[in-house]
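seq as requested:
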Amino acid sequence: MKPRVVEVFSSLQGEGPRLGQRQIFVRLGGCNLRCDYCDEPNTIPMSSGEPWSAEKIKDAVLALNRERPHAAVSWTGGEPLVHRAALEDIMAWARSAGLKNYLETNGTMPQALEKIASLCDTVAMDVKLPSATGEELWSRHLEFLRIAPEKTFVKVVLTSRSTPAEWRQVIRLMQESSLKIPLVLQPATAREDVLPAEPRVVLGFLRQARALLKDVRLIPQWHPVWGMP
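struct tokens:
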């Protein structure tokens, strides 16, 4: 089955430890979750985007990379692992073309990750809090982290509804995974129906995590600041 593509474009990575890196973004349609802070809600329906052949995706990536050099292809969405079968071939091709694979994922599809983990150079895994999704996903996140390659970082978007109990569970999740990987706190980007966690709350969470974990960072989302897609 052909993956459903919403858009392919060049931009700077606006989140996480690769902030500012020039990447080619392949935004895929369809997601298995519905987070209240999603900044691409049009990609949630499984019918979003258009079916693209692997060759069409490769041609679009190559065309952008000819215009200027890129460090990686960011497979984003939606939830890219919905399209795991198609990604396996295209990510292998990207490697052969000299591009790294940067996977942006909600961290809830461990079996799909297992098939392509060896092809990922960076896995940007979101931990989804119950206050944002309306469901408990801790066990799926833990299973995902136990499969994830070492080049993974965990990101948590913090809204005004994020709770101390949820944050304690995030820390437990990181400890149980036994991975010494970065944990990134990202205050939600404000909009009419979503507010970021208050700065004092975020800094309190940061201090709490740094007391127990090795690598904890506070990195806001920068695309809205730059005015870029």
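The helical segments are 54-67, 84-96, 110-116, 130-133, 138-147, 164-177, 199-210, 223-226.
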